[in-house]
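User: I would dearly like some help making sense of a protein record. This is the protein in question:
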Amino acid sequence: MSLAYTIYRLVGTGLYLFLAPAGRAYCRVSGSDCRSIKQRLGDYSRQIAGATSSASRIWMHAASVGEVGVAESIVNALLPAVPGIRIILTTITKQGHVYAQRRLAGRAVCLYAPIDLPPAPVKALNALKPDILVFLETEIWPNLLTAAARRRIPTAIVNGRISSRSIHRYIKIRPLIRTALSGIDVFSMISSKDAERIQRLGAPSERICINGNAKYDSLASQARPALQQKVASQLNAGSNRPVWVAGSTREGEEETILDVYRRIRRGQPNLVLVIAPRHISRVPKLEGMMAHKGFASRRWTAFRTPNGKTTDSADAIVIVDTIGDLKGIYSISSLVFCGGSLVPLGGQNPLEAAVWGKPVLYGPSMDDFLEAKQLLETAGGGLQVQDGEGLYNAVRFLLETPSQAEEMGRNARLAVLSNTGAAEKHAAVIRRLLNRPHDRGNAADTFL
């Protein structure tokens, strides 16, 4: 083992010895249901462990909501092909856990992931006894991977991606990352650039293959007419009112969006603006900002009264204060702006709006979603703006030329649908890994 990993393990053990007693003490004092804390410490009850018993068990790890959607598309491809298989899906965030339970009920056992501090990963492996350990996208957990390798449990990264921003962070700890990657049997990456970056970090080239982005499959399955009807009924904006959705916005962008909205409304007084902050903890701050600028605002949750009747959107700006609803809200938009892109934060996924057939705008910072950006721009479904003035001109143009907006939206949707099929390819990698004798040194011929 490398010196970097030895240090990582020693520091992690010390942290666990501090956190574990504190977590258990909190559970005793609070008297609340602490299943999440116990599971994060690697303590899975016998009931949970027993529920996962099966001839073939696949432990899939997805960090949060976005990765859960990818996991679902791969699970949907796996279940018919491997009869009797059982899926264990772990997540880090509470939002991801709740979303996983809702989306994968009856198809997977949904748990919180153990923290990567010894001995939590070992305890988790002993309890869950997976036949294969699968990580979604960019999850690299050195202690869990090392513990799995020592037990000769096959491991894989599927739908793997390493962004141009994250590669620089990983390079700073490359000795540690190289040790972790050395124990992974297969790297089923999204694109050639992702493959190149994972190889730079130390992944053996003979274990790397490229199978596309399963997020396209996930998005295509979520774009359901019934969901669109439900969201349209809740907002109740009326068919004659254009809707501009600014999704996953970050601090530093909302003021620009509000200034653009004020200017646009001079010629489009019926325009409805929906803002969904990336972090809903910022909702009160947004309400204060809007009040200061003279705008009325209403929270998304206020658009359904206790008696079940919908209320009119009137002239208030709508602030989305829930997790997981934005993907559906995109369905009723006339055009979309993807946040995190007018500020240097790497952007957000523009395909979540594109799959609904919506024209998508974004700023110059799209480093985390360059593949999606290039796909949309090549198809004529996405448009980059440089600043607030560029955003104003683009929004105004699309609202004043609805035929152009509709064509752009059609192009965006076709771009997504034409790239489906990756989920089956990643699932095939998992099936082959499950069925072959474990021989880490000769993975290339099996997967390339």
